Amino acid sequence: MEKVEVKELLDAGVHFGHLTRKWNPNMAPYIYMERNGIHIINLYKTAAKIDETCAALAKIAASGKKILFVATKKQAKDIVAEKAGAVNQPYITERWPGGMLTNFVTIRKAVKKMASIDRMKKDGTFNSLSKKERLQVNRQRAKLEKNLGSISDMTRLPGALFVVDIMREHIAIKEAQKLNIPIFAMVDTNSDPREVDYLIPSNDDASKSIDKILSIVASAVEDGLNERKAERAEKEGKAQKNEAAPVKAEAKKEAKPAAKKAEKAPVAAQEEE
After folding, report:
1. What three-state secondary structure class fits 15?
2. Which of 104, 105, 139, 258 is deepest in the core (most CB within 10 A)?
């Protein structure tokens, strides 16, 4: 995981909150001061919360569960797609599909529909359709890809949600709360931190700030995934040793009589002489 440096957070503008008149009083513990009508976030508290958040995310990733990243605001879309994609995690950067979590079975059906269209194209069924039908199927495939393409590998509910701007993604937050899915989020001074389980007090509007926080978070997720790989490799190694052990034991048993025979042979030869 990347080490959190307060100076780097400062350079990325993570400390800039919202206008003082738009603040949420529950964010008071994370506010350092007010400057020119804007709240300034206490970056030492942000750094501490980043460490806490990253440790929890690494643990979830190591357990094999997916972390769903959610950010539909313009300045966060590309960053989230890049960072989440790099660590092979699902993400939503277009409109949040209602019931994405609470009605996951229906969402999975839509994803399967996308896969069936791909199969049609491979096995030649697609070419047997009329020109109009092919056009409709292609449009449907493009729409599904845009909205759900990034979650096509998510076969079960995620182990956690990471959200950029909890006010904008309030529907996703509500669905996760209903299903008791842990919520991690970048929380600005205008939001209610009680809505999430793990918060990172930070500027959720500036792309530099979002990029910095997500780089650290993605690094923690990668650490968790590497830990899982190492554990798997260790288990496989042990399993192979255990499989090899009975074979070795049997070989030893077979070798013992042969060794005894070899010892007896010179003695028998002397007796004959």
Report:
1. coil
2. 104
Which single residue is written with the structure tokens 């970056």? Answer: 43
Q: What is this structure's pTM?
A: 0.82
What does DSSP say about strands 31-35 and 38-41: parallel, antiparallel, or unpaired?
Answer: antiparallel
The position carrying tokens 């950067």 is: 93
Q: How far apart are CA 101 and CA 17, in angstroms?
A: 30
Instruction: Name the band, by pLDDT with cuts 50, 70 and 90, for residue 75.
Output: very high
Question: Dihedral of CA 211/217/223/227: which sign?
Answer: negative
Sheet arrangement for strand 160-164? 91-92, 67-70, 160-164, 183-187, 198-201
Per-residue pLDDT band for 97 (boundaries 50, 70, 90) equals confident
- The token pair that represents 55 in the structure block: 């440790």
Residue 233 tokens read as 């490799």
The owner of tokens 């798997």 is 232
Show the CA angle centred on residue 90, arms to residues 82 and 102, nearest 5°: 145
**pLDDT the model gives residue 253:** 64
Flag whether pLDDT at 146 surpasses 90.
Answer: no
Residues 6+ apart with CB under 8 A from 164: 69, 70, 71, 73, 76, 80, 185, 186, 204, 210, 214
> In this structure, are residues 26 and 192 in contact, taking their beta carbons and an 8 Å threshold?
yes
Mean pLDDT score, 63-79: 94
pLDDT tens-digit series, residues 226-260: 999 998 888 888 877 777 666 565 656 665 665 55
Which runs of consecutive H residues, i.e. helices, occur in 149-206? 170-178
Strands 183-187 and 198-201 come out as: parallel
Long-range contacts of 137-146 (CB under 8 A, 24+ apart): 140/113, 141/114, 141/117, 144/110, 144/111, 144/113, 144/114, 144/117, 145/114, 146/94
For the record, the structure tokens of 68 come out as 């769903």
